[in-house]
């Protein structure tokens, strides 16, 4: 795996929508994210043609990705947000162009498609950090997210992931300017939950959003033979669509039946998002949802990877704050010291 060269303050970075063109209909978080890139990160964001076009075709969005990689003045690529159909975009990517011009890519959720594609090309990318969510967060960037993103964007070397003891998964409406005057409400939480600690696992990462992984498995898109994942660390998280515990277990069960789960000696599980604008759960319902999610993952691991070590409630997914995981990069999961260290 190759770590592409990092940008420096003052460099140009591509901002594009390889999934949904939500910047076109929800400009407030997008503009806030562009300001954060310019003012806090001292980068020069460059929008590509389909960035604000909702419903742009797959080939048009792929053209933006190819052009961003091909442009020598662009030093990194940051996804505007996720979506649900990036699986239709990746067949149109120009792998020769990407390999000839490797550069860091940041994104998560539906961008799991691109992360898997780049992994298969041997390029390390970055799971996390979208313009509208982390950079354009209501009330300004979360300090934890900003620190992780800054380290991943500009530096190379080890980075100890922090544990959060308060978080938010409550979304403020993006079409209301008042939402951007205050940060989302946070609630207290416990630190990481460890399953089968006592060992140390070092390996490359693979995984992403669990729902997207299930689609890739169904489409037989970009998934290698099980042996390709031997010794790697599986990273999984779930989205704002709030999949049921039964669905989470079934996806992992199918990965187990395919022979995948047994290949991973360690698993990092993102803190489950348990509230959305379409499903405004009570505190009691949120707690029950999170418990059921953990139980579903543990059930699958007991059946298909009983020796695997797992760390739950790592802030790597759809909750706030969010830490960046180098996708295909090195990670050390130390169950003895109860620490997780990634290499940016």
TrEMBL record:
EC number: 3.4.-.-
Keyword Cell membrane: no
Domain LD-carboxypeptidase N-terminal: 13-128
SUPFAM superfamilies: Class I glutamine amidotransferase-like, LD-carboxypeptidase A C-terminal domain-like
GO molecular function, one term: hydrolase activity
Key words of the record: Hydrolase
InterPro entries, per the entry: Carboxypeptidase_A_C_sf (IPR027461), Class_I_gatase-like (IPR029062), LdcA_N (IPR027478), Peptidase_S66_N (IPR040449), Peptidase_S66C (IPR040921), S66_fam (IPR003507)
EC top class named in words: hydrolase
Domain LD-carboxypeptidase C-terminal as annotated: residue spans: 202-333
Family, similarity comment: Belongs to the peptidase S66 family.
Protein name, per record: S66 peptidase family protein
Organism lineage: Bacteria, Bacillati, Actinomycetota, Actinomycetes, Streptosporangiales
